[in-house]
Amino acid sequence: MLSISLREELEKLASELLPEFFALLGIDLFLMLSLLTCLLDDRMPKALPYVYQIAALVGFGHLLVSQNFFTVFGDYMRFWYCFIYLLVSLANIVAVNIYFAAVNKQWTLAKVWSGVVSFPTILISIFFVFSYSYLHGVPFPLFLQIALIVSVIIMGTSVAIFLSPEALRNRLRGKGGGN
Amino acid sequence: MNLREIAFKKPLKLLMLLMTSVLIATASATIYYSLTMQPQVTVIAPVLKFSTAPDEPTGSNVQDSWCSLNASSYPNATLTYEKAVYINNTDGGSAHSFRLRHVSITPANGTATVGNWTSIKFLVYNSSGYVFSLNYTVDSTNWILNPSSGQTSYYSVPQSTGWWIRLETLSPATAGTGNNCDIKIAVDVEQ
Q1: Angle at B154 between CA B60 and CA B57, to 5 degrees
Q2: Residue B103: inside a domain, yes or no?
Q3: Residues in Cβ contact with B69 at an 8 Å cutoff, skipping those fewer than 6 apart
Q4: pLDDT at position B49, please?
Q5: Domain-located, residue B32
Q6: Of A20-34, A62-76, B47-61, B69-83, where does mean pLDDT reach its minimum?
Q7: Interchain CB contact of B40 with A (< 8 Å)
Q8: Higher pLDDT residue, A102 or A140?
């Protein structure tokens, strides 16, 4: 009984999710990026925190437009422009990660960033996008859900290995030594 | 730029960014919340409807959700429209309450032409008799409302029942013909 009522409550909550939620998520991600790049400003371009603040402001304007043309834009269009905004914010998170790893050669920082920022934000975004699409009539079969989880785990592991190849080398060497 | 300046600059920058971030996040969340609160408005038929009655003044217009009564008044004689308009509860399942609420009146208080009327009364009746009323009486050049608040209490109309408004008008002997008085009254219905 408890599981049924909890499921109903979750479905009710998720059914109230509007496409603009992705824009809101994107704004929050940009704001988070702004604060983090400010904290790491000795490793990043000085103007970057302000650029991200402006990007968040653009998202705010985006929400304002959505509010005023709520009835004019259809659900489909609203979803796509909000989703693209979210994708842009996620792309920026990944870009910062790549910047640390490839440009600055700061592997430790890049690993921490991927584990603390990139990976969770991408996972949360995927969760909300699929919750939204599922509850708006787009079926998301079980095998695809499992495939998604598996691919996310593989992606996370691959990024970690890519960013610290010596760990993999040590592991392989350890195994080789054992033989 | 010395070391102290640099140490001071970074926290200040962070604080400024933190403040603007909180501001943007709050404003965005407020807009999103307002979007989730977008109401869906469906047109439905009113449950309490006006309908034409036998003593409806000539030239009146009675619709389901509003009516315009084109009444007259005689100098020094009370003119009564016994059943000016019906108010029917068309809901067969439950009772609904309504009240009369004054909205506006012209000529306004302080105007000399107000003296062309003595009283205009809107009395609500049911099959058992008088229920309540909203009355306009004149004191010199001012309209006096009864109840003084300009609105009556709510009264419940039983299911599938019709009540009616009795309209009484009276002008003083000195009233000039051709003067017009416009009264707007709201009928507030509790669904």
Answers
A1: 15
A2: yes
A3: B56, B57, B60, B81, B84, B85, B167
A4: 92
A5: no
A6: A62-76
A7: no
A8: A102
Tokens describing residue A86 = 């979210």
Contacts of B18 in chain A (CB under 8 A): 35
pLDDT of residue A3: 46
Phi (first) and psi of residue A41, to 5 degrees: -70, -15
Residues 6+ apart with CB under 8 A from B52: B62, B85, B86
Interface contacts (A, B; CB < 8 Å): 60
Are residues B21 and A31, on separate chains, in Cβ contact within 8 Å?
yes
Confidence of residue A167 (pLDDT cuts 50, 70, 90): low
pLDDT of residue A174: 64
Task: For residue B28, list chain A residues with Cβ-Cβ distance below 8 A.
Answer: 23-24, 27-28, 56, 59-60, 63
pTM: 0.52
Chain A residues with CB under 8 Å of B21 CB are 31, 34-35, 53, 56
What pLDDT was estimated at residue A5? 56
Residue type, B58: T
Structural domain count of chain B: 1
d(CA A174, CA A160): 18
Could you tell me the residue range of the domain that residue B145 belongs to? 48-189
Ranges of chain B whose pLDDT falls below 50: 7
Q: Is residue B17 part of a domain?
A: no
Q: Is B1 inside a domain boundary?
A: no
Interface contact B10, partner A, CB < 8 A: yes
With beta carbons less than 8 A apart as the criterion, state whether B99 and B119 touch.
no
